Amino acid sequence: MRVALLGPTAVETDDGTPVDIGGARVRMLLARLALDPGRPVPTTTLIDDLWGEQPPADAGNALQSLVSRLRKVCPVALEPGGYRLGVATEDVDVFRFERLRAAGRPGEALALWRGDALADVREAPFAGPTAARLEEARLSAEEDRGELDVAALTALHEKHPLRERLAGLLMRAMCAQGRQSEALRLYAEVRGRLADELGVDPSQELQNVHLAALRGELGPRPVVDRLPVRLTSFVGRDDELAEITGGLGRYRLVTLVGPGGAGKTRLATEVAARHPLHGKGRVWFAALASVRAAEDLAGAVLSAFEVTFAGDPRRRAGEGMDRMAEVLGAGESLLVLDNCEHLVGAAAEFTTELLRRVPNLRVLATSREPLAIDGESLCPVGPLAVPDGQADLSGFGAVRLFLDRASAVRPGFRLDESTVDDVRLICRRLDGMPLALELAAARLRSMTVRQITQRLDDRFRLLTSGSRTALPRQRTLRAVVEWSWDLLTEEELRLARRLAVFPAGADLAAIEAVCLPDALYVLTSLVEKSIVDVVEIAGEPRYRMLETIRVYADEQLDASGEKWEVVGRFRRHYRELTQRWEPLTRTARQLEAIDVYEAEQDNVVAALRGAIDDREVELAADLLGGTFWYWLVKGDNERAEMSVRDVLALGDLLPPDRYATFRAMQLLMAAIPGVTDAAEAAAVIEHCVSSGAVQKYPSLAIALPMLGFLSQNFELARREVKRAAESEDPWARAGAEWALSFMLVDEGDLEGAERARDRAYDQFTAVGDRWGSAMTLGMKAAFVSHTGDNQAAIDLYERGLAVATELRSQDDAVQQRWRLAVEYARMGDHAAAEREITGAEEFVRTVGNEQLSTMLDYAKAEVRLRAGRVEEARALSAAFRQRAATPTALGSFIAEWVAMLDTRIALADGRFDEAAGFAAVAVGTTSERADMPDLATATELLALVRHAQGRARATERLLALAQVVRGSLDMGDPDVRRLVAELGEPERLAITKAEALRRIREEAGFSTG
Question: What InterPro entries does the record tag this protein with (predicted)?
Answer without folding.
Answer: AAA_22, BTAD, HTH_77, OmpR/PhoB-type_DNA-bd, P-loop_NTPase, Sig_transdc_resp-reg_C-effctor, TPR-like_helical_dom_sf, WH-like_DNA-bd_sf
